[in-house]
Description:
It is a single chain. The chain has helices at about 40-50, 110-120, and strands spanning about 5, 10, 20, 35, 55-65, 65-70, 80-85, 90-100. The chain has 2 helices and 8 strands, in the order E-E-E-E-H-E-E-E-E-H. Strand 1 (about 5) and strand 2 form a beta hairpin.
Amino acid sequence: MTPIKTAKRLAPCPSSPNCVSTQATDAGHAIAPFRYKKPRAEAKESLKAAIATMPRTKRVAEDEAYLHYEFTSLLLRFVDDVEFLFDDETKTLHFRSASRTGYGDFGVNRKRMEEIRALAGDKL
């Protein structure tokens, strides 16, 4: 699968409420980014280690400043795409979490990103 990003920008969220992004400007999709203090490579390894503790995850793409994971739901096997983009200029970790199918997500994408924030936040 081709990563959904361009230089320093993630794809925008669709109009449906099953996506959150640090680069969204509307309240329904916007979420605060993560900040990192370590060098990017170390912060990226810490993030990867935190995500590795979560069930049903698969890393599908990676480059120097980008990560793309697939998260699969337990019961219905829905797949959500989660992308991370490191911005060294501002030490900001942008991300986007979006369902591939359906309309609503019952807040799953937002909850997941807050869980990752809790797992990795102080280790970045």
